[in-house]
């Protein structure tokens, strides 16, 4: 007979994983009737406890997991540095798991982590993530989790975010003050909370200045640079005078598309991006960015996770924090020079 894990046992009994776990460990919180039912089903279904997971329930793995979409993005690279600065002090290892923006990868990673490989999880969700059962199951299994940057709003745990709505509004107003009235917004997901908040901030700024938002002004990009290059080229053929990119990896395709179409930045179109690129200041022209406090966000997220690991009654759900981003104005949104008549 095939062995089953605790999650499958809980599913068969129509109980939560945490209830089944407590019943198996003879917890006083669980009624005798439920304990008997759980033990009988465990025997019948050939449930065998995972000794590795059980040994780690005392938080002796000295590992935490970091689940993120990618490491090429400079935001995540800086956030990792912030996280590791705390983990090193606590003498913990950080195990990095990449979802590559794919929900199924994320689901599989969390299923593996439920087995007790780590003591806690820091997470930034993929752009495909809509369902949250895999996250709920992780928390039900007794593993504390802290979101940073990309979050699931419906999950009751700590969320470390930035002021995406307000800073997007500020960035859009900057373009408007520079004379733009046809501003395109490059988005990457219809469901990702951070890019949707950025879009809402952009919309508010347009409305505040009585600029009509047309359907074609919202352009959805994809994950591949080549695909995005073609999408952006088509968007530029609508002759916008301003463009906002909601994520960093749209920068290179945008510059490449402008070069191909002989469009000058900032004379023909002004461009800004949500980005922590170190080379933003040396691009030609230098790139105006909305820069997130990535290192600080990672450090704060890790600090909260370790508080949850060290304090029995520490409630992560009460610890969410918003850390402001900054608009760094450079040449890509500079005002057009007025050449006086000779």
Structural notes for this entry:
- The protein has 342 residues and is an alpha/beta fold.
- 41% of the residues lie in helices and 14% in strands.
- Helix 1 crosses helix 2, helix 8 crosses helix 9 and helix 10 crosses helix 11.
- The longest helix is centred in the C-terminal third of the chain and has 17 residues.
- The N and C termini lie far apart (92 Å).
Summarize the structure.
By secondary structure, the protein is of the alpha/beta class.
SSE layout and pairing:
Layout: H1 6-13, H2 17-24, H3 32-44, H4 51-56, E1 63-68, H5 74-89, E2 93-98, H6 103-113, E3 120-123, H7 133-140, E4 145-148, E5 159-161, H8 164-177, E6 183-187, H9 193-208, E7 218-220, H10 225-236, E8 242-245, H11 251-260, E9 270-274, E10 288-291, H12 294-310, E11 321-322, E12 326-328
Parallel strand pairs: 1-2, 1-3, 3-4, 4-5, 5-11, 6-7, 6-8, 8-9, 9-10
Antiparallel strand pairs: 10-12
Helix pairs in contact: 1-2, 5-12, 6-7, 8-9, 10-11
Overview features:
alpha/beta, six-stranded parallel β-sheet, six-stranded mixed β-sheet, 12 strands, 14% strand, disordered C terminus
Give helix and strand order, one letter per element, not per position. HHHHEHEHEHEEHEHEHEHEEHEE
Instruction: Estimate the mean pLDDT confidence.
Output: 91
Cα end-to-end separation: 92 Å
Major beta-sheet overview = 6 strands, parallel
* Alpha-beta classification: alpha/beta
As residue ranges, the low-confidence spans are 338-342
Number of strands: 12
Query: What global shape is seen?
Result: elongated
Helix content: 40-55%
Strand content: 5-15%
Radius of gyration: 24 Å
The spatial strand order of the largest sheet comes to: 2-1-3-4-5-11
Number of helices: 12
């Amino acid at each position: 007979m095939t062995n089953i894990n605790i999650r499958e046992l809980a599913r068969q009994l129509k109980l939560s994983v945490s209830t089944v776990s407590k019943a198996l460990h003879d917890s006083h919180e669980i009624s005798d009737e439920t304990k008997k039912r759980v033990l009988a089903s465990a025997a019948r279904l050939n449930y065998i406890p995972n000794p590795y997971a059980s040994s780690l329930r005392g938080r002796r793995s000295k590992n935490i997991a970091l689940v993120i979409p990618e490491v090429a993005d400079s935001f995540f690279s800086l956030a990792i540095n912030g996280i590791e600065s705390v983990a090193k002090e606590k003498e913990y290892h950080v195990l990095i798991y990449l979802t590559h923006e794919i929900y199924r990868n994320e689901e599989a990673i969390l299923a593996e982590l439920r087995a007790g490989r780590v003591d806690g999880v820091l997470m930034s969700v993929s752009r495909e993530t809509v369902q949250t059962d895999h996250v709920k199951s992780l928390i039900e299994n007794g593993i504390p989790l802290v979101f940073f940057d990309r979050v699931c709003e419906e999950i009751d745990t700590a969320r470390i975010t930035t002021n995406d709505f307000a800073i997007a509004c500020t960035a859009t107003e900057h373009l408007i003050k520079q004379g733009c009235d046809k501003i395109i917004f490059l988005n990457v997901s219809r469901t990702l909370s951070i890019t949707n908040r950025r879009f809402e901030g952009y919309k508010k700024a347009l409305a505040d200045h009585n600029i009509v938002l047309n359907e074609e002004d919202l352009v959805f990009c994809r994950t591949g640079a080549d695909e995005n290059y073609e999408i952006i080229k088509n968007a530029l053929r609508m002759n916008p005078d301003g463009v906002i990119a909601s994520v960093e990896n749209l920068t290179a395709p945008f510059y490449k598309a402008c070069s191909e179409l002989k469009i000058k930045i900032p004379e023909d179109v002004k461009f800004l991006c949500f980005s922590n690129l170190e080379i933003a200041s040396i691009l030609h022209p230098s790139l105006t960015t909305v820069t997130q406090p990535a290192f600080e966000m990672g450090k704060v997220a890790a600090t909260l996770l370790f508080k949850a690991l060290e304090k029995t009654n520490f409630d992560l759900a009460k610890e969410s924090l918003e850390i402001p981003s900054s608009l760094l104005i450079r040449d890509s949104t500079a005002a057009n020079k007025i050449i006086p008549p000779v």
